[in-house]
Amino acid sequence: MLKTYGWSDDLQRNFAPHAAAGLIAGRVVLQQRGLYGLATLAGEARAEISGKLARDAVAGGYPAVGDWVAASPGGAGGLAIIHHVLPRRTAFTRKAPGSLGGVQVVAANVDVAFLTAPLSGEINPRLMERYLASAWQSGAAPVVLLTKADLRAELGEVVERIGALAAGAPVHAVSARTGQGLDDLAAYLTAGRTAVMVGSSGAGKSTLLNALIGSRRMATGAVREDDGRGRHTTSHRELILLPGGGLLIDTPGMRELGLWEAEEGLAAAFDDIEELAAKCRFRDCGHGAEPGCAVRAALEAGVLDDRRWQSYRKLQRELAHLEAREDPALKAARRRQWVVIHKAQRARGKLERQE
Fold this sequence. Notes:
Blueprint: H1 9-20, E1 24-32, E2 35-40, E3 43-49, H2 51-56, E4 68-72, E5 80-85, E6 91-95, E7 103-108, E8 112-118, H3 125-138, E9 141-147, H4 156-165, E10 171-173, E11 194-199, H5 205-213, E12 237-241, E13 247-250, H6 263-269, H7 271-278, H8 294-300, H9 306-325, H10 328-354
Parallel strand pairs: 3-5, 8-9, 8-11, 9-10, 11-13
Antiparallel strand pairs: 1-2, 1-4, 1-12, 2-3, 4-5, 6-7, 12-13
Helix pairs in contact: 3-6, 6-7
């Protein structure tokens, strides 16, 4: 059963010390109000975290859907106890909603991040840039899904426009109602691979998931006519095994997406601006009145859209503000973790290109 959910030889090696301690391996397939659903060798189990894990976990250290964990099995009718979270390959994160901040892990150990936006209304390019930066930072491969394609007569222009800011990420127009574009998603959802769907409420994530499953498993809701937003029909995160063997994590609609330690992701999402900045005469160019500024020249020539430039600067300021507030020791520990994640991502990409 564990191989069905993505268990690998690397995970087996990492889990060896926990197995020696009498713990069992499981993947978090459900997260809801402090309780977790695990897929284990013995089947599905309900679980909660141990007091020690609750006390000692650093920010973002609690289990998230997609995580692999070490747990002690529960008694008859009892809950399993999660003691450890295994190192993550990738993690889609955001700044936790609310004034207190902190980091929230939306989904862990995902290979593909489906970034959804509905074609039933105007797509906000600034919001899409946020999603792209978060996805590139996560270590997963971003894929933009323009949903509800049956509601838009002319698709070419909008697909081209979103593709221009997608920084190399594939863009697909899909419709759960007509089935348009769904066959294209099969390549991302092969057996053992995990994808996550993220996006605002009303993007049609649950409807799309139902179409991929082939049944009406996830509740869906109507979109409000006054603002085009959907009601929050998905209230929890869940990892679902698809008929073809792929794994897909459904998430509630996001009202906000604050970046979290996404410097590398931001650079990848705005690679056009990064390339221009590298051509400036001075390495520490502030892109203001300095002579030989390639960014200012591109803005004045209309090659670089000023709205995109202002979006980039805004996200830079947002990250700088977060960095100034964060504890240095915790930041250093997480940076070491992300170095490992991105090295592994680059190695996987190189191997896939060779194949």
